[in-house]
Design brief:
- The chain is 47% helix and 17% strand.
- With 137 residues, it is of the alpha/beta class.
- The longest helix has 20 residues.
């Protein structure tokens, strides 16, 4: 019998405990992904660089400010983290709209809060599959 495929690794960057609990329950317990949590925006880039997850889910507003853009800039500038797919889950609708062209340029998907959980799960699955396909080419 062959070993089961390794679980996909998802990093969640957010400081909202309710959201983090939901993501952990949904992604880890229901979908069996390996979930890594980062609550501090100022360590998020190093966190992603060190863990090399298959996907990042992050907010824009962290610590009361829109620090998510700083994280996204760092992740897209570094060749080691640029290929990692990113989903932005945020209630900062105006800010997402203003940055849509930039997000599209890097293939970053935006899900405005509140979002449908099935939509999130489908997006997660799709982006992880595409990432795994790219890294095997």
């Amino acid at each position: 019998m062959s070993d089961p495929a390794p679980r996909a690794r998802v990093a969640v960057i957010n400081d909202d405990t309710v959201f983090l609990d939901l993501m952990q329950e949904l992604l880890e317990q229901e979908e069996h992904y390996e979930v890594f949590i980062c609550r501090e925006w100022d360590h998020a880039y190093e966190f992603v660089r060190d863990h090399q997850p298959d996907l990042v889910i992050q907010d824009i507003r962290i610590g009361g400010e829109e620090h998510g853009w700083t994280i996204l800039n760092l992740l897209t500038l570094d060749p080691r983290t640029r290929p990692i797919p990113i989903i932005v889950c945020s209630a900062a609708i105006q800010s997402l709209h203003e940055h849509q062209e930039w997000l599209s340029q890097y293939g970053i998907r935006a899900l405005p809060k509140p979002f449908d959980l099935d939509t999130l799960l489908n997006t997660v699955e799709e982006m992880i599959a595409a990432h795994k396909h790219q890294s095997t080419d």
